[in-house]
Amino acid sequence: MSLLRHIPLRMCVGCRRRREKGEMIRFTQDASGAISIGNQNAQGRGFYLCLELACLNAARKKMRGFGSLKPADLEEFRSRMTREKEKQEEEE
Questions:
Q1: Closest to 50 (Cα-Cα) out of 83, 16, 73
Q2: Which domain holds residue 38?
Q3: What is the DSSP letter of 4?
Q4: Which of 32, 37, 68, 86 lies most in the core, judged by the most C-beta atoms within 10 Å?
Q5: pTM (whole model) above 0.70
Q6: Is residue 47 part of a domain?
């Protein structure tokens, strides 16, 4: 019996790199078109982004649906990204 657990990989829509699911933030869009940030269990269309501002900027250029995010949502995402990065650096 193997002691290793399966770690799901997801692709970032900004940089197209594959990373562990826990290292990324999930965006979901519900039936009404509202986008929620960071809820891993939300139902609806979803996509993942790395915790880098370059990926956020690249995704905005590539995706039309991403335009429905309000500037306040993007600021929340940017602050969440910096907190997550700090948390990862503390663990290392």
A1: 16
A2: 9-91
A3: P
A4: 37
A5: no
A6: yes
Q: Please, how many CA atoms are within 13 Å of residue 62, restricted to the half-sphere of its CB?
A: 13
- Whole-angstrom Cα distance, residue 18 to residue 7? 12
Confidence of residue 69 (pLDDT cuts 50, 70, 90): low
Is 2 inside any structural domain? no
Q: CB of 81 within 8 A of CB of 51?
A: yes
**Residues 6+ away with beta carbon under 8 Å from 80:** 25, 37, 38
Q: Across residues 47-66, what is the average pLDDT?
A: 79
Q: What average pLDDT score do residues 60-88 get?
A: 70
Domain membership flag for residue 75: yes
Query: How many folded domains does the chain comprise?
Result: 1
